[in-house]
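Hey, resending since the last one bounced:
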Amino acid sequence: MLHRGIKFVHAAALSFSAVLAFLVVSDLDERGVLGGHAALTVRESDGSASGAQVVRALTDLAAERGVAIGRELPDLEDSEGRRHLYLAVGAPQSAEASWLSEGYPAFSQQIKTDVRPLAELGNRDPRGLYYIFGPHGVEQGIVSEFSSLGLTATITHPFAFSNLATHYKDSVLFNALMITVLAIVALTGASVLLSAKTYGVLRLQGLSYTAIFRRDLWQLGRYSLITLIGITAAVLISLGFYNGLARLMLYATVAAGVAAALASFAIATHAVALRLTFKADILAALKGEMPNRISSFAAYAVRVPVLLLIVGLAAEAATAGQDLLQRQQAWETYQRTGDATGIRITGSLAIDEINKMEKVLGQRLRQADTNGEIIVAGRTSSRNILRGSSASGELLIVNEAFLAEQPVFGLDGQRYLPQNQQGERGSGSKVRLLIPEDLSGETERVRQAAPGILNPPEPDSIKQTDIETHSMKSGQSIFSYTSGDTSNRAEGRQDHSFVENPLILVVPNGSRYLSEVHYFGFATRNQVIFPDPQDVRNILREDARMPTYIAALLPVKQKAAVAIREAAYEFRLHLFNLAAGTAVLLITATGVCIVHARKNAQSIFLQHLSGWRFAAIHRTVLIGEASIVILLALWLPVRTWWDNRAIETYEARDMPTPRPPAELSGIDAGAAAGLGGFTFVFVVCALLFFHRRIVKEGTSEA
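The structure tokens again:
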């Protein structure tokens, strides 16, 4: 009979494949419309064809080629939860044709896709994202059609393996897959080695390595088939309730691919471990012994990299938990923003047209600022301004409307307000620089840098007399309407809706102090807020150019809710990775102890009778584990030093650094110390257990 650990591995692999396939297909569905074999991105237009002409041409082309051509657009009001697919169908009997009447077969339930005829696009700007459904090989013909209409299109295959590999290689899902592979290798190897006595009996009966391996595969095949039937039934029932079995073939393909990959690792490990049992002679195998050096080397070959990896996993899990907690704590403040919304800027324009969009949209946002329709809540890093100083943090660039909504207090405890409400603390239409009291020594440096910060194209347009300086209480947490640009910090993806102890530059609403570049740049990062969404709708209605540049509204509260949902999802995945990694550590630790105990059972018993201390008897294993703990302690500072080598190059040349220097955080140190101590104690406990069992069995035999 197969060891129950081997059966568990294959059942767990099938279950994990089903879960991972669900997460991957859900993610793919939320990223884009499924079912197409190619995507076309149209960014350039010479204006020779109107939107209506492009719609008619694509409709005729779809009918001629027997394909379906769809264009995806976000919903104006709910871009986070709804999208629109405008579809021209050339084959009335195709699956895509049914979408117009029956709806899009969504796998994920997190986003809704409305399907409409392509003709309903009307005269809308034709630049954007298109999908091609149906027979392959028509992409170039469609590109040529776009070209004849004065449009430049590029072909991509978003679901090609290379693109998927690039997207997922640094994701939490990929980490989960790698940890699962290591767990499968560790548990399979341990289970086979624990069956050394069984394999010794089979060898005594005359079975060769090949015959035993074929026997195991036959038994494993029967067990896996029964398990597969059960899991398949459970998956079909679950998906039937969840999405009506939508995208079942795609889901099955992904699940089968993952299961095949995991099974190949399990079978390969099984074969190698079985070969290791043949390294011991039959008599030793009948006693359950196994080759000590090779088995221990194999266990440590998995154990050491997993231990180094799991330190990062533990830190990531802790960081993800902190992120989720911070977002949940900030949610109450987000709820008070009401219907306030940012705007989503289109990404379907050529690079040479970005400058035009920047100017046109920047001017329109400046006008909205003059009219009191927006809150500017720009944020950037202050570390390059304060380079060489011990201070670091963020700089907020805000308008007067921001002060009307968010409290900022001076040293006297009085709140800073818009200048028209400030009384004697206001000086008309000047820039106000608010500096925390503990950063007052940096006042002149920040003041000198302010013109270049506010108006990079024309810093000389802002004189030092245009800037007045005020002090504010240190340690204030200022709500900024967004979670912050993580590129400015070393912590990675963490919520920073509240900016701690920032420098603040306050510019009068709509003034020329703030460049159009900043208005546009802040808008792309959702840092230009419209308290009343109707003002955005008015802009879209009144200016025919704006629908080309503004793709949708991004409600502040809705975006925060989506971020909380995603943070909770990532936190659960990090916990899974941490649990799986810990399981691998425990399995390999147990394996090392078993190999040591079985190989040296007789000497352990004799040394115990001779009065040897526990540490002396098991010194080899204990020294090995202590070495791992020391390696772990050295690895963290070495990794930090390595990460900072590039930063040192920038600093040596007195250049702005792309990110803050990496630091050995308390979370990293705590994770390393905790894991090192935990695994060492676990090994000692496992050795103590096997030691007592050996002594007990030896005493009873004597």
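The chain has three domains: 33-157, 291-337+559-702, 341-531.

Sorry for the duplicate.
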